[in-house]
Amino acid sequence: MLGLFGTLNLAARSLQTQMTGVEVAGQNLANINTPGYSRQVVNIAASPDITTTVGSEGTGAEVTGIQQIVSSLLNAQIQSQGSTSGYWNAQQTTLQNAQNGLNEFLNGSGATSSTNAAGASTTDSGLSGQLTSLFNAFSSLAASPSTSSQQAVIGAAQQLATTFNQISTQLGSARTAANMSLTSDVASANTLLSDIATLNKQIGTAQFAGGTANDLLDQREQDLENLSKLTSFTTSTGANGAVNINIGGAALVSGNTVNDTLATYDPGNGNLLVQTATGGQPVILTGGSMQGTIAARDGELATMQTNVDSLASNLVTAVNTIQNSGYNSAGGTGNTFFTGTNAATIGVNAVLVNNPSLIQISNSATNTGDSSLALQISQLATATQSGLNNQTFGDYYGTTVAGLGDALSKANTEVANQTAVTNMLTTQRGSISGVNTDEEMTNLMTFQRAYQASAQVVTTVNAMIADVLAMKV
User: Fold this and answer.
1) Would you list the domain boundaries of the chain?
2) What is the pTM of this model?
3) What pLDDT is attached to residue 125?
4) Fewest Cβ atoms closer than 10 Å to its Cβ: which of 152, 259, 307, 331?
């Protein structure tokens, strides 16, 4: 038999067991709003029986462990989803920067818009409207050669050239912003890699000593999910529950050791890429905001820059070819109309800016009233250009803008879709690992009542011991 003191020990173990239950419920309630926290439960089992003359007799209950309720499958899915979401969010941000640089409202809001032959929505304040203004100015000059019409041509050309310059500058700024974003993401990833290695060590130490590291495991899971938003990676389980991390073929974290970190490098074209900092091994990125930024910068953004440069180059060539073949009102030649070769360098000849009468629009050195070349230049508005895929200037720009618009629209759609999936997975995990106030309050009351009952056992046994001590032999 247990006897009085054995029963008193049974009650004491029960008190400790129920107190642990209260502590765990309190821990859950305290962390109900803590990001990434996984609820914990106390595992209780019957204490080992003892053999008595009347058979096996129980010795109460004891805590066998504090278990963290997690779903490894959902955690892995959320990490994978984080990489996809990070990729499209980065694409969206980079393309929006390019959209702002173009001064075109691709979604058709905030400005008076029209539709060109390519079916693309453009605004009069953008490059498309200014191309039209230039050709209209040449048409007016052809119809009525005068000082004011010559000045109007120069003014329209200057405005157009300035817009080309600004667009090129803004696209360059978008590329610079993408490089800065990539550099920032790399720094954040390195911090997370270091934190994960440190947590690996702390978790291993706690588990080696026979304890639990539930809160540390939650912190590491949060770091892994934050890392997944930056880049895709693969993991493997090391000794003492450590997580080893491999990014793009580079083993960066092994146990509590950071083997290498990430760094950006310039391959020679100004577009930063990622490699290992010490080994110099190019890292093959397959997801996350790093790859999303690179894909947008080297994809649609680079295409946009190439197309705008091509548009400026072909415009310079077409206008100059006609204008340079003619004569000004004094019968002179030798002044090209546009200078430069691309969107960044295009400009209007300073000589013509200072003296618009030197524009060469006559086919004859002696016929000062001729303006036939101005008419030819105005007709470029509807002429297809072999250097622009046999499209007109307006249509080519419209197609270019539409390409960016389509890419941005796709990114917006994907961001919305991935957000919905992420919310669904997070909700599903919350139903498993999240803290439920009603459930924890019920557990708290259950452990409280059990604690009170165990205390009553102590009181009863204490009274019985007193009775025994009071007995007289």
Assistant:
1) 3-69+434-470, 77-422
2) 0.84
3) 58
4) 331
